[in-house]
Structure formats: structure tokens, C-alpha cells
Amino acid sequence: MFSRGTRCYLAIAKSDLDAYNIEALAEEVILESIRLLKTSWPKPDRLHEAKFFHKYEERLRDAKKERPRGVPTLLASGEDVTRHHCRGTENQYAMAEFSVSESESLNEDDAANFSEPVDDFEVEEYLGISDLVDKLGAVLQRLNSPSEGKPDQRGPETRRLDWLLLKEVAKDLSSASDSYEFATAMCDAVEVHRSLYEIGRIIHRDISAGNIMIALSTSEKPRGLLIDWEMAKDTTDDQSEIHGIITGTMKYMSLALEHAPLHQAWHDLESFFWVCMYMIIRHADGINLCGTALTPSGRRNQLDTYFGQGNLQQLSAMKRALLLVSLDVSGSSAFGPSTSELGKHLRRLYTAFTNLDAIDGILKRLGHKFGNAIHAYTAISFHRCQRLSRQSSLGHTENRQMRTHLFDSATRSS
């Protein structure tokens, strides 16, 4: 196995499943009952993702700071294919059975059982989760065994099975209903990153469109989530980071990372910029690149050109080229002004990164251990775009269905 193989499953408490007539339930009740079960196969030397949640929560309490709204809620976690460590945070999950369902690999009667916080327990003592772990463990054993007579040249890697149970179920960033929802998700993710770094002393190191989600909710106010903390780095860790080891999703990586420096917080903030650039080119109406209006096929070609081909060095060169071409987002009615303003702020944000990094360096030399100039500027930029898109949306509340959405029907342009 040569990757983390992350999978996500919808989960519902078996007691709820037995008690409810799912078909007759209101949407609010369903959303309140459903949880997310995530499994992945990190290398054994990587910290469990849950440990970053625990460190962050502890440091928030010590600093007497509030938890940002964009932090996912961890309910329970475990590791290994034979023994598990359960970290529950809510009493109602003590001894609760969960039924997880995914058509490709799980049967309807598969169930996961999560206990009160304990140091260790034998997974065989519990129903359901052992079935899931056994299945995944068998896959791991098979993939880690080279084919007879044809061993893989890279050799097998030892992997550890980790799982998390999260409270929130979310949709991806491409499914944002309008520019306000998109900008809100970006704002919330930046605020989580800021708190994670300044209070938690943790750098996320994998900012991507796939890791910025929008919580499913019946509330009219959208909420963004910054997920997937697996590749995070605790900056207080005495163990020095190895130069040349790069983490993240290549198409969104900072240009500076092509030289394999130590990963800094501002590298992640540049990734927020590239996420916005990618999403605007992919989904926004009225895109003009070098004076030419982009058709759906033209969008795909441009995304492949600037974000989809080559190694890290080649991708960095193409993204630099993108900064030199004229990109105009005229948009239409509801979101046009906010999208254009977003583009302007993105340009300013990117050109300011170098100077802001220098300012942070000065702040640190003056005794501020963690400078926050870049975080502040990034947050201000996205909050301004959020306000503009909100104002634009309010002007069209009378006929919401007729409004032109920034991300209306993502599949049509992808």
C-alpha cells in the first residue's frame, strides 16, 4: 500500500435506526442523527489525526480561547487492526452502536460500536467495528504482500488503520450554492487555520479544495469546516522536520515549496489563494482569460494547463504564468461584483505574501514568537469578499431560485 487510502462513511446510531422510520423523518432530524466515520491508512510513524484535535483542544483551554466554528467535532477515534483506543467526547456515545453504510464495501447490517473513553479494549468484544476493521485489515495484508514472483520494486509499506467518528456531515466546496456560501466557507477555514497555528501551535500543511467543506445544515447561515488534519505538524515538537519532505496537494501548494523548505504557516495561506483561483476558473460565470471567454471545455483545458500537469516544479512554473495573464471575472447579476472583488483581493493577497512574511520575521525578532500579519491580512481579505457576496445575495432574495449561482451545477463545467 502506497497511500493513505482515506474513505468516509455515513453513520447513524443503531438505536436511532431501529427507532426511526427513516422515510418519514424530517430533514432536520436526519441531519441531527447522521455522523461521519472516516478510515485511513497512515504510516506507523505518523501521529493519529485525533491527537492533533486533543492537543489543540487542550491548548485552547489553557489559553481560555473559544473554539472557532469551523473546527470539526471529534466524537471518537481508534487505531490498529487488532486493538483500538477510543476517545469519546460526549457521554451519549457511551456504548452506542453505529450502523455504517457504503454501497461499495459495506453491508446494511454492518455496525460500529463506540465505548466510553478507555486506554485499550479488544476490538473483538464489540459488534460491527470489528467486522469493518477485519475487512480493511485483510485488504492491508493483501496489499502489503508482494505478488508471487513479481515483488513491487518500491517494496511494501507498513500501514496502520486509523478511524475517526465526526459529528458533522458536509458537502464539498464545489457544491457551494452561491458566492456567499463559498466565501463563508473560506473565511471559516482561514479562521480555523489561524487559531490552529496561533493558539494550537499546529500547522495544517494540506490546504486544498477537498479539505475545505461546507457543513450540511438546515440553518440559513452557512458554515465552513477545515478537515483532514492527518498531515499536520506540531511546531512545539522537538523533533526537527526533515528538509525535502513535502506534504500537501500539489495543485494548491505554495510556489516556495518547490525548493523543499520547512513548511511554514504562510505556505498554507498561499494554498488558500490557489484554492480560490482554481474554484473561480472552474465554476464562476463570465470568466475571461487573456481576453477570451472560457467555454466549459476551455475551463477544463485551462485547469489542466495551470493545475493538472507535471511535477511540483512544473506546476509551480505554470501557476507563476497564470499570475501574469489577464484574468477577468465579469460574472452576472447576483454574484458578479463580489466575484470581481474576490479576484482583486486574491491578486493583492498574493503580491503581499513576501512583504508580510518579512513583517512576521520582524515581529518574531522583536519578541513575538508567532507573528500574525499574513493571517490577519488573509482573514480580512476573505471577510471583505464574504460581506460583498452577502450584500449581493440579499438583493436577490425575492427570487432566489432565479439567481445566478457562482457554483450552479458544478458538473456542467467539469
Automatic annotation (TrEMBL):
<dbReference type="InterPro" id="IPR011009">
    <property type="entry name" value="Kinase-like_dom_sf"/>
</dbReference>
<feature type="region of interest" description="Disordered">
    <location>
        <begin position="393"/>
        <end position="414"/>
    </location>
</feature>
<dbReference type="InterPro" id="IPR008266">
    <property type="entry name" value="Tyr_kinase_AS"/>
</dbReference>
<feature type="domain" description="Fungal-type protein kinase">
    <location>
        <begin position="2"/>
        <end position="279"/>
    </location>
</feature>
<dbReference type="InterPro" id="IPR040976">
    <property type="entry name" value="Pkinase_fungal"/>
</dbReference>
<protein>
    <recommendedName>
        <fullName>Fungal-type protein kinase domain-containing protein</fullName>
    </recommendedName>
</protein>
<dbReference type="GO" id="GO:0004672">
    <property type="term" value="F:protein kinase activity"/>
</dbReference>
<dbReference type="Pfam" id="PF17667">
    <property type="entry name" value="Pkinase_fungal"/>
</dbReference>
